Amino acid sequence: MSANSRLTVAVHILSWMALVARKRADPVTSERIALSVNTNPVVIRRTLGLLHKAGLVRSHRGVNAGWTLAKSAAAITLRDVSAALEQEGPFGLHASPPNPGCPVGRGIQPALSRVYGSLDHLIQQHLARTTIEQVLADTLSMTPGSNGI
Amino acid sequence: MSANSRLTVAVHILSWMALVARKRADPVTSERIALSVNTNPVVIRRTLGLLHKAGLVRSHRGVNAGWTLAKSAAAITLRDVSAALEQEGPFGLHASPPNPGCPVGRGIQPALSRVYGSLDHLIQQHLARTTIEQVLADTLSMTPGSNGI
DNA sequence: CATAGATGTAACAAAAATGGTTACATCAAG
DNA sequence: CTTGATGTAACCATTTTTGTTACATCTATG
């Protein structure tokens, strides 16, 4: 296991849903999605819950329940997905606060916060330039034919 | 504890060394640095070891041992520091590989690798624009007077 | 109206990463 | 040869991440 794979899993979920939606408008189940992602359905539902809270997907209950996209794949950017996951930025400050009796210990957190803040902004901007539709197109370009979901 | 604080600690170390180096060229010990960062000296030495391997600091042994900067603070960028730490990017791929029998499972890793790769490149570029000297200046701008290290 | 099949969520377990700590061999100036 | 620090291994505690079991809840449909 490396870093956190949440954005990857979320994008995978949405891309798969977008592919399926090309043929059927029916809701898809977390179990079916889990087969493609290769993990437990609850893991999928947890992520779908966050995407739901962010308004990217709709959930349907009762008989014929499951999930559908709330927007077209072209209208969902990776920034939307990343924001839905409520993750922290890549760099954190000190685990325990530095020595306030030292000028460096006193001033470095605000200084680094500015650096990390603009970095976050940059990352968001970049993620906003890619949509689920683009990821799906790029993904499918590997295997021209077949679509044995 | 939040995300990983390694870049923060490394930048703190180098900034503190740069501040001290303005007055004395003598090596500083990991114990003294640890007082400013507020952690264990071994944690500092671990990070200094990586910075040493990257050629950013020099280590001195025997009597009057310690560490000195190998370059001026203006010649060390946050990209240099980040690279020295050999960390992974912010986003990882799947924890366990996705279903290769599904077109999405098959193609999404290369697709996302491209996205993450260009994102990494962007982050590196941005980090390269800030030097330790700039961070130190920004850090000290908080407390104009005093320098009770 | 009962049922089937799914969501939604809590609770727990396993594994990995992170930060901290102790211990100690090694080195070189004095 | 002594001293004080590096360099590194080994270990522990805490947190994070992922996976799993269990179960209450909901609703189209027979």
From TrEMBL, chains A, B:
An example Gene Ontology molecular-function term: DNA-binding transcription factor activity
Alphabetized SUPFAM superfamilies for the sequence: Winged helix' DNA-binding domain
Keyword set, alphabetical order: DNA-binding
Domain of life of the organism encoding this protein: Bacteria
InterPro entries: Tscrpt_reg_Rrf2, WH-like_DNA-bd_sf, WH_DNA-bd_sf
Gene Ontology CC terms: cytosol
Pfam families listed in its UniProt record: Rrf2
Name of the featured protein: DNA-binding transcriptional regulator, IscR family
Lineage start: Bacteria, Pseudomonadati, Pseudomonadota, Alphaproteobacteria, Hyphomicrobiales
